[in-house]
């Protein structure tokens, strides 16, 4: 029977959220959690044998290998229908506390998809989950997918929680999935990605808790949100890391929309991404704390997208100094924290490379792995000298917003002495679609307000941003 899957790909943007936090602040102005890059010192997926430059190159290779395909998946199997989803390299994680009592899990945080799902146990304590796993075991095998080998993860055992529930077919939450199916009158899903990765299980509800230090300090304030819809996944196949995924996209099932519907926080969140070179975690904010108030903040309206999860804005032109490169007619760009590189149309990248080549007085060198369109030899440059030699690049967006990209937003040192442009043309399976990736968003406070329908950008020192910290004691139940 046809099953579902919703749109993720994220372009884009790997964020999550139920109850999570390595560290968190909860108060009347909202709450904040740590936003952990997979290669940071706080991540269990960091490879300590790699140098800083090697980690940057690995991130670039992931972007090339798992870049979004935006292609429709293969024909549906006899067991389920597959809707349009895309692959992506998952770059950011956040801790999640789910259940009563809570189980702490480390999940992918994704601004480019909607569904929140967690790795559930084998379902021995719940006949419905056990049936879902049994049915999947007899379904046709999916196409091969890249498989990582992360450390053993945490599984959520629904039998240990007093508040766990299964969602029935025909409910609004079940209808929010593109192609939901029924399993013993319960809402079953299959979420597939363009690289062949899949997750499947039953749509469920649980209590998510936001608290400092995982809510273990009796004096710290906690915020509990009941009846959060999430996928209790019994099968994961492919390139996933972590214990699940928190969708922060624009669709109905995303954490952002659910918090907006069930709390007074509104449908808004923001993050400030620390540069790859700094060993510190970034910050993810919800509610009033997500307001972007730094000087020079630029706001652009969100525009409708074929994929509801994507945060899409109008790209008018790209400017370098006094040189303006007009974007193709009706050009849109997706803002996504889960994509490493920035992808722009060939009509923009080719003249951008030409203009940078003319302006930057450094020797050109080949790109490692032939991944990037323009590389310079900076081995002879003094510290601080390179940034002064590379001009700013400004993205001119709808509504008159202008977002200035500094050297750290447009170039990566992928190996010692080799600096490469982190802006490329979508390749292979890409359609003519553009993405502002996380390199371009480093040291920016980026705020999404779904109630107002806007995205706001402001330059910021993200390493100096306030870290999530304890709040007054007490509890808030929603």
TrEMBL record:
Q: DNA damage as a keyword?
A: no
What PANTHER family does UniProt report for this protein, alphabetically? ASPARTIC PROTEINASE CDR1-LIKE (PTHR47967:SF128), OS07G0603500 PROTEIN-RELATED (PTHR47967)
GO term, biological process aspect, one: proteolysis
Q: Which residues form the Peptidase A1 domain?
A: 92-458
Please, which domain of life does this record's source organism belong to?
Eukaryota
| Composition bias, Pro residues | 141-152
Protein name as it appears in the record = Peptidase A1 domain-containing protein
Gene name per UniProt? LOC123439538
Q: Where is this region: Disordered?
A: 133-152
> What family is reported?
Belongs to the peptidase A1 family.
